[in-house]
Design goal:
five-stranded mixed sheet, alpha+beta, 382 residues, four-stranded antiparallel sheet
Length: 382
């Protein structure tokens, strides 16, 4: 699975020379529907070529830009790892592909910059999480979303505890320690029996440091919640060495190896949903409480320039609406049109990603769930 981070979004949001082609489409995991997905991509690329030529590009030049995407049509390994949605970003500098666990409506956009708003539901402030499943047999990192869990590869990390510790029977070794009486803060310190052998807790902590190192390297720059799943005595030890900034206090307890994948997902979702809802509700509360002051607005003509200049602190944007118009950097003004004119762009998309680039909290919700306004609303930094 491809992991889409804010760093990826930052790179994609930068304007460059030459046209940018954005392609979104639903796909299926590898199987009987793969050929239909390849045909759908072929049709989308044909549409993209037509739009490039319509915009004044010579047909051979358009074909050259799209060549990396056309090559995917016969790339069997690429389709073997297909997911629920595919996003392609193609320009003069090359192509980025993302096979993501969220489906998209088919859409082809050719503009001066990539069209990114559909990805707000993937990398916005409240949409995905990470699940780290710790067990004797297997250590797995999974990306979670509303569509389920997808395992990712953790290079350089031992596959399981027995491999790392070279124990033939980790369960037997782990019983060398147990929980004693309550210590400071109400926690019960571990008590170890002298056996003349290596301290099992010390070995576990060292092993968990290696796991944390691999997780930190993989999730670099991604501060979305990390949920732990594992048996009770392992989780506190991992917490001792964790360096991820958003490790959730709640966890999924029990052996993940013995848990049905759908049940594991539901247990993780039950842990993370209160975090998502709490963050979004708190942001909506701040917006509502400040409403009417100079630090809040739902006026796109005010909001778009504010986003461009990094003045947005918290932004709510409607995922099911578009607002066509043009932002003029020279005059620092946004003009809104009832229907798209030549050179127009979706100003909701522009505002959302300028806000993301400046570190704002961005929440993508249906228009009916906006706390104020009907397309966009924000708390400003100043």
């Amino acid at each position: 699975m491809d992991v889409l981070t804010r760093e990826d979004m930052t790179a994609l949001a930068v304007r460059g020379k030459g046209p940018r082609v954005s392609v979104y489409m639903p796909t299926h995991r590898f199987g009987p529907d793969t050929q239909a997905d390849q045909t759908a991509l072929k049709n989308a690329l044909r549409e993209a070529e037509g739009l490039l030529v319509e915009g004044g590009m010579r047909s051979p030049d358009a074909a050259a830009i799209l060549a990396p995407a056309v090559a995917l049509l016969d790339d069997r390994p690429f389709w073997l790892r297909a997911n629920l949605g595919l996003a392609l970003f193609i320009g003069p500098d090359g192509m980025r592909t993302f096979r993501l666990p969220e489906t998209f409506s088919t859409r082809v956009v050719v503009d001066e910059r990539f069209y990114l708003k559909p990805l707000l539901t993937t990398v916005g402030s409240d949409r995905h999480f990470w699940l780290l499943a710790l067990s004797q047999k297997h250590v797995r990192l999974m990306r979670g979303s509303a569509n389920g869990l997808e395992e990712v590869d953790l290079d350089g990390v031992p596959e399981n505890l027995a491999e790392a510790l070279r124990w033939d029977n980790f369960e037997k070794a782990s019983l060398q320690f147990h929980t004693g009486t309550s210590g400071a803060g109400g926690r019960r310190p571990a008590v170890f029996h002298g056996t003349g052998e290596t301290d099992p807790k010390g070995e576990l902590v060292r092993y968990f440091r290696e796991i944390d190192k691999g997780v930190a390297e993989y999730l670099q720059g991604d501060a979305t919640p990390l949920i732990l799943a594992g048996v009770d005595y392992l989780l506190p030890m991992y917490r001792e060495v964790n360096s991820h900034p958003s490790l959730a206090e709640a966890a999924v307890t029990g052996s993940p190896e013995n848990t049905n994948p759908e049940v594991l997902f539901q247990q993780a979702w039950d842990v993370v949903m209160p975090l998502f809802e709490g963050n979004r509700d708190e942001a909506a509360r701040r917006l509502t409480e400040a409403w009417g002051s100079s630090r809040t607005t739902s006026d796109p003509e005010t909001l778009v320039p504010a986003a461009v200049h990094g003045r947005v602190d918290t932004l709510f944007v409607a995922t099911d609406r578009e607002l066509w118009g043009h932002y003029d950097l020279g005059t620092d003004t946004a003009a809104i049109h009832a229907h798209p004119h030549s050179g127009d762009e979706d100003l909701l998309d522009l505002a959302a990603f300028e806000a993301l680039l400046s570190g704002a909290e961005v929440y993508a919700v249906p228009a009916q769930d906006l706390p104020q306004g009907d397309t966009i609303a924000a708390v400003l930094r100043y």
